[in-house]
């Protein structure tokens, strides 16, 4: 009987331990369930963040490509403007050279015209002087003739 009692006590003690262990297992299962739920939520957030990162990475790549395109277009426009400016500068330099040549030609023409004018003016002066001299000579001759006729008559 004593042995039975001790065994009964042992069985009760083991049942209590079993209940405590079962209670502990239930608590552990609840903790594990909460942790699994937390892990699941974390995985969902991770997937969401991964999607967001992928989307941002694509947007960043598109922005970089767009920026590269804009830089290239700006570079092409600048190059085009530079070529146009150089072309215009060459045209202006050519026009300046032509204008200088034309100006030099006009100066030479003016100098030639001035020389011809001076020469012609000098010729006219010489001829006028010669005419005046001839005129004086003729007037002197006429005066001589008048005086001679007066003396004869």
From TrEMBL:
> PANTHER family recorded for this chain?
OUTER DENSE FIBER OF SPERM TAILS 2, OUTER DENSE FIBER PROTEIN 2
Give GO BP annotations, semicolon-separated.
cell differentiation; regulation of cilium assembly; spermatogenesis
For the keyword Acyltransferase, the answer is: no
Q: Which organism is it from?
A: Rhinopomastus cyanomelas
- To which protein family does this belong? Belongs to the ODF2 family.
UniProt name for this protein: Outer dense fiber protein 2
Gene Ontology cellular component list: centriole; centrosome; microtubule; motile cilium; spindle pole
Ranges for the region named Disordered are 68-120
User: Which domain of life, per UniProt?
Assistant: Eukaryota
Which terms are listed as keywords in the entry? Cell projection, Cilium, Coiled coil, Cytoplasm, Cytoskeleton, Developmental protein, Differentiation, Flagellum, Microtubule, Spermatogenesis
Chain intervals with Basic and acidic residues compositional bias: 68-85, 108-120
Subcellular location, record wording: Cell projection, Cilium, Flagellum; Cytoplasm, Cytoskeleton, Microtubule organizing center, Centrosome, Centriole; Cytoplasm, Cytoskeleton, Spindle pole
């Amino acid at each position: 009987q004593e042995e039975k009692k001790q065994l009964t006590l042992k069985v009760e003690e083991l049942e209590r331990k079993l209940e405590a262990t079962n209670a502990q297992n239930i608590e552990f299962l609840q903790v594990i369930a909460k942790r699994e739920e937390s892990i699941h939520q974390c995985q969902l957030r991770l997937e969401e963040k991964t999607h967001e990162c992928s989307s941002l990475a694509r947007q960043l790549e598109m922005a970089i490509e767009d920026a590269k395109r804009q830089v290239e277009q700006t570079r092409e426009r600048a190059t085009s403007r530079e070529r146009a400016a150089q072309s215009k500068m060459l045209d202006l330099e050519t026009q300046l050279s032509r204008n200088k040549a034309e100006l030099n030609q006009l100066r030479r023409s003016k100098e030639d015209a001035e020389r011809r004018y001076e020469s012609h003016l000098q010729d006219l002066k010489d001829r006028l002087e010669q005419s005046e001299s001839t005129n004086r000579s003729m007037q002197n001759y006429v005066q001589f003739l008048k005086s001679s006729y007066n003396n004869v008559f």
